[in-house]
Structure formats: C-alpha cells, structure tokens
Amino acid sequence: MTNALTKAAAGAALPAKIDPEWLATQSPWDIQDGLVAELKQRFGLELKLRHGIEITGQRMSEPKLMAKCSSPTSSAKPDWVGALALLESACAPAPADKLADAIAVLGELTRGNTSEPELQVRAYVSKLREYPADIAMEALNAWPERSKWFPAWQELKDRMAFVAERRANMLEAIRHEAGVPKAKRR
Q1: Taking burial as the number of CB atoms within 10 A of a residue's CB, which of 30, 90, 103, 184 is the most buried?
Q2: What is the pTM of this model?
Q3: How far apart are CA 127 and CA 176, in angstroms?
Q4: Torsion region of 179: left, alpha or beta (phi above 0 gives left; psi -120 to 50 gives alpha)
C-alpha cells in the first residue's frame, strides 16, 4: 500500500481503510489529527476531546479524557457506521513480526539483559498488540532517544497511555452515538 499520508495534520486525507502495516509507519499525533479532520470532512461529525471528572455520590473519579461527538450540520445525518469503521481500523495492532523486529532493534540500541530473550520478545509483542500500531511502534522507536536502558513494560505502557486513551475515548464516543455496545477497555 502506498503511503497516502505523510502529515495528516497538514490537510492530507487518511486512506478510506487504514491498513495495520501502513498505520505502523505513521506518527500517532498525525493519525490523531487526521482522524478528527476526517470525521468532520468525510462523516459530518464534530469530535471534542476534553478532560473531565465524574462525580458519583460523594466520590470524584480521577481526571480522564472524555470525547463528545456531534453533527455540525442538522440537515445531514452523520455516517456513524463509516466513522466507526475508520476509527476501528485506526486502532488495529501492528503485525507481530513488525513488533518483534522493532523490539530486536530496541534491544540492540539499549542496554539490559534477560535470561530468556525469546520469552521477552513474545511477552512484549503480546502486550503491544493491545495498542494501535502507530502508538506501539512510536513507543518502541522513540525509546532509545529517551534512555540507554531497555524499558520495563510499565515504562512503555506509560509512554503509550495518553495517546491510546485519546484514541479509545474517540472510539467509545462514536460507538455510543451509533448505538453500538460499549467495548471492554484495556
């Protein structure tokens, strides 16, 4: 698949169906901006992301990112099914072999040792496949610039959390408006 987007934020369109191989080569921030733009241009949806706190009884939750979806034009009915398909494809995991290769490169660029390298790669691939391809690959590829040590799983998870939460909230907002049952969260 040719690269239809090098900078989503610069106004280029996302492909109609996002391929996981292609997604794994993109910046999470460009994909995020591209999704918001495409939802508005292609599907007639306005997506607003904000931080909020839920209050239940006397307890307040931790601040969390919330997404609100609405149609900016009252005359046209939004294409919820198309929007949901686009967002679901933007949440596809990277292929396992691509993640394994990135983990091997990361291992060569950082210090750290393990007595079971094959087990470590399988464990990391398994966990990283719970995240969208662009987010997981960015975390792996950017790590050597951040530390000389091989990351613990929690360190990678923390690096991916903010962008992954934004993407998950966007997906949940679309599912809610489309009447699709809420998905199980990570």
Answers
A1: 90
A2: 0.80
A3: 27
A4: left
